[in-house]
Each structure stands twice: as structure tokens, then as C-alpha cells.
Write a structure and sequence with these properties.
The structure is a homodimer of 308-residue chains. Chain A is an alpha/beta fold. Chain A has two domains: 176 residues, Rossmann fold (3-Layer(aba) Sandwich), CATH 3.40.50; 122 residues, N-(1-d-carboxylethyl)-l-norvaline Dehydrogenase, domain 2 (Orthogonal Bundle). The first copy, chain A, is built from twelve helices and ten strands. In chain A, strands 1, 2, 3, 4, 5, 6, 7, 8, 9 and 10 form a ten-stranded mixed β-sheet that branches. The longest helix of chain A has 22 residues. Chains A and B meet through helix 6, helix 8 and helix 12 of A and helix 6, helix 8 and helix 12 of B.
Chain lengths: 308, 308
């Protein structure tokens, strides 16, 4: 990876605009693939209101594109598509790759690295977990309200020089970034919270405080978490039981939080059902782990997703 | 039971007003216990719009009371309370009983007969299943939109002369009524539909057509029904597997139906959680029947019930 790599942001929604915007703000060479917001951003630029400091990127400083085929080859492709668009990987990403391009997915849930490794090669792939509250209020109008940390790891490998370099670039661009020795462990640890609270929040249309607002809700969240931990372990991931009670305790004090999946469901948008619940369930099936609550949660979410 | 028994209706909501009203319309001696609607009905009577024929009961023809203690002893007490009020049985029913009083519960779900038999004696108790769509639009304003059949059986016994007499009285009062040889079987057969569709409808805020609107929803409803059937069997009730597919088929063609539990949840009223899900689950626990989906459904409904 060159010292000043060329970045391509594929999927310039809230997350892509925020992290790509931070890199651009700090002088990096960033190229944004945009679809619905292309015209607006090309004319008016990006406006980012952030609890870590507001900034604007004027239209003339920005490189925005409507199609990957118009974009330069990138040294680092950052994938921030909704996982429901993963079927478009080949079309959107292939044109951006040279021999040494690294592909970083900052997407939710499980299976994204595998789905990138298939067509493009596992050696390219880095996965990142974004702990961030950021919303797109309108075209080019991004609101970053909390957190911001990225934890990043090589796919199926330990820490590498390029991982260190990427982390360094983010850290020096106002994006706190940590390296993960074990990406899979990071993914599964995040699922401990995401499966129950994205899942139940979207299935029932309830914020997290409601779900843990009665003993039966806490018990159910805990059972789902136990199944996630058991499933992760069955796949060879080291999982610490202590994370379960930590996640319960954290949720009990976090107030009325609307998970991204609840928001998607309520807005009538496609929910990230496969990445967050479907893929973990597949792993459970493969290793014959009993997951009655995850299974029923998946059924409930299929019902929710089928309601237009 | 005398040839012209004196009836007391305990819980004069939609169901109590409709069935009690039909009896009064046909010249029977009916006494209504009312609480919230007492003043209005005492002054303005009852107005019943019914697909089987509208009728009015003028205030001067009606016997309405605010307290059981003001009412005459009854030959037949008809209990149409919401099951969430079963804790008030002693207070509301005891004053109405003479030695030979029969107590008929037309309430939903499981456990009502047992809860009446405890304090008042099993020999008094008859249970009835009301297959009826009837709503209270306002005080004294009842709308009967569909069905109306009552299936009635002795609690823990076969058909009796008094059961025949009661059935006859209903049938000659524009209320189709059938006798059940086996009340428990009738209750459990009704639960095959009620547990999944009241339960999921209330948990997710969805009409029945949405729940069976995707293959995963049908599969989930079927799994819940299988658990209900297995639980009924474990309690010695003869259950026919064919009911499962019959109930699925019926629901697929019944259109967007809002179950009573969904309506209660959406109106912020207490839901009949214990009678419809809690009691069947207790039976399953007692006989060590595996009911993972019923158990999770119960947890979801506890969450829903705790949301004010």
C-alpha cells in the first residue's frame, strides 16, 4: 500500500460519507461512489455535523461518481454498502481493483468478508466493526451523534503492516481506530448485542429500553445471547461468557435506543436480516448448535420483512 | 334448573351484552352486572346492531346493577369477564349463588373453569366457547359483525340435562348453541388457532394475513400449533393433527383479521396473556412437553404487556 493511498468509498450513505469525509478532510485522496445523492453532492458538497467537530467538504474538493467504471483504481476500497446490497459486489467493486488493492468492509453482521473473499481473493480483505451513531438526514447532510470507533482486523489472519498503516491513517484523521488480532472474535462479540436487540427491536417495533423493561425480556435477550456465544464457539471463536452480562448491563443503562434494524423496518426499508441473523443461524446449523430462540427470531423477522 | 331460569351476566362487555341481550330479547329474566357503563345503560338501555338482526332493549325492560350484592340470586351465572379480571371471581360471583346455581364461563383460553371450580365447586361449572365477532363501540352500543355460535360443555363431565336445557334456551333465543361431549377438547382445539394468532398478532402488532403472508410465518404458526397439540395430548386430550392444516388454510383465506389480543395491545389494555398462553405453558411444563416457540411467544408478550 503506498504511503498516501487512493481510497474508494463504495456505498456513500451515512457511514461511508462520515468516514470517507474524515479522510478527505485530512487531505487524503478519497473517491465516493454515490447513487441517489450523486447530483446533490456534486453540486453542494457534503455537510457533516459531528459531536467530534463539524466540517464541510465543498463540491469542488470532492470526487464523486455515479458508477464504479468512471472511478480510478483504488489502493483501498472501503465498503459501506448496506449488506442487503451485497449481491452487487462484483459490479460495484471489480472495476476499482488493481493487483494490490485492499478491500475493507465496514458493514454489519456476518459473512461480508467471505462474500468479498469469494470473487476478489481472501488476501485482499480486511474487516472493520464501526461503533458509531451516524445518520443521513438528507442528501449530503450527515449527522454524527455518538461514538465513532473502528475496530479492524485482517480476514483470517493476524495483524499485518497494512492493517497498522490503515489504522494510523484513520487515527490521524479524527477516527479512533484499533487493530483486532482476531476479526472473527470481534464480529461475534458484536453479534452478542446485535442479534437480540436489532432482532427484537425490529420484530416488535420497540426501543432497547422496552425490551429489557421486564424480567422476561431480559431473560429472552440473555437466552439469545447464549445461543450466539455457543454458535461462535462452535465455529472455533473464543467467546467469553462475561460479555453476556456486560451487554445486558450496558443496555439497561443506555436509554431508549432505536437499533438500525428497527429504524429500517419502521421506514419500510429492507432490513439486514441475513447479515445479522441469517448468517449466524447458518453457522449454527452447520455445527448442529441448538438455537431455538434465534430461529424463531429469524422467522419473526421474515414476517416483518414481508410486510410492505 | 327451573324451566325459566334467572340469569345473571357478570362482565357486561360486548360478549355479555350481546348474549345476555339475546336472552332478554326473547323474554328471559336477565340481570346484568355493569360497572363503567352502568349509568348510561340504566338511562338509555342497550342498542345492539347485529348481522343476525338488530334489536334494542329499553332502559325500563332491563335489570342492571352496579354491584353483585344488589342482584337477586341467579339460577345461571354467565361469566363474560375478561380473564384478566379472574382475581375478582369471589367478590363478583359469590353473592349470586344459591345451592343449585350453575356457573357458565364464556371466557377465552384455559383455566377459567378451574378457577371457578376452586371456590364454588366443580359441579356448578359449565364452560362455553364463543365463536363471535362482537364489539362495544361505546356505552350500551354493541356491534355484532359475524358468527355467534356457542359450544358448551360440562366441566370434567359429559353431556347433562341442564346442559341440554341451556343449549335449548340459547338456540330458541337466536344464539346457535352446540353441546360438547368433551369441553377440554373444545378448549384445546380453539387454542390451536388462538395461541399463534392472538400471540403473534399482539407481539408484532400484525393482522393474521401478515403473519401467514410469507413461508416463514406459516412455518412458525405451524410449529406453535404443533406444540399446542402436543401439550393438549400430554394432558390426556384427544387432538387431531388435521386441525393444524385446517387452521392454517382457514387463516390464509380469512383476510386481515385483528385478533382480540392484538386489539387489546394496541388500545393499551391488559392482554389475556395468562389464559391464552400462560396456562397452556403451565400444562406443558407440568408434563415436560418441549415448547420452545410457545415459551418465547410468552416472553415476547410479557415485553409487549410491560410497554405502557
Amino acid at each position: 500500500m503506498p504511503r498516501k493511498p487512493c481510497f474508494a468509498i463504495v456505498g456513500a450513505g451515512a457511514i461511508g460519507c462520515y468516514y470517507g469525509g474524515r479522510l478527505a478532510e485530512h487531505g487524503h485522496d478519497v473517491h465516493f461512489l454515490m447513487r441517489s445523492d450523486y447530483e446533490h453532492v456534486r453540486q453542494h458538497g457534503l455537510s457533516i455535523k459531528s459531536h467530534a467537530g463539524d466540517f464541510e467538504l465543498a463540491a469542488q474538493q470532492l470526487h464523486v461518481y455515479k458508477s464504479s467504471r468512471e472511478m480510478p483504481k483504488a489502493d483501498v476500497v472501503i465498503v459501506t454498502l448496506k449488506t442487503t446490497a451485497n449481491g452487487q459486489f462484483a459490479e460495484l467493486i471489480a472495476p476499482l481493483l488493481h493487483e494490490g488493492t485492499t478491500v475493507v468492509t465496514l458493514q454489519n453482521g456476518l459473512g461480508n468478508e467471505q462474500q468479498l473473499a469469494g470473487p476478489f481473493g481472501a488476501e485482499r480483505v480486511i474487516g472493520g466493526l464501526a461503533f458509531v451513531c451516524v445518520n443521513r438526514m438528507g442528501p449530503g447532510d450527515i449527522r454524527h451523534t455518538d461514538y465513532g470507533l473502528i475496530k479492524m482486523g485482517e480476514f483470517g489472519r493476524g495483524i499485518s503492516p497494512r492493517l497498522g498503516q490503515l489504522c494510523e491513517i484513520f487515527n490521524s484523521s479524527k477516527v479512533p481506530c484499533q487493530m483486532l488480532e482476531d476479526l472473527a472474535q470481534g464480529r461475534w462479540e458484536k453479534l452478542i448485542w446485535n442479534v437480540p436487540f436489532n432482532g427484537l427491536g425490529a420484530a416488535m417495533g420497540l426501543t432497547t429500553d422496552r425490551i429489557v423493561g421486564c424480567p422476561e425480556g431480559i431473560a429472552l435477550a440473555r437466552e439469545i445471547m447464549q445461543e450466539v456465544v455457543a454458535t461462535g464457539r462452535s465455529a472455533g471463536v473464543e467467546m467469553d461468557d462475561a460479555h453476556i452480562e456486560q451487554n445486558i448491563a450496558r443496555t439497561l443503562t443506555m436509554g431508549p435506543y432505536r437499533s438500525s434494524m428497527q429504524i429500517d423496518a419502521e421506514m419500510g426499508r429492507e432490513i439486514e436480516l441475513d447479515a445479522i441473523i441469517g448468517q449466524p443461524l447458518e453457522v449454527a446449523k452447520e455445527h448442529a448448535v441448538a438455537t431455538p430462540t434465534m430461529r424463531m427470531l429469524h422467522q419473526l423477522l421474515c414476517i416483518r420483512a414481508s410486510v410492505k
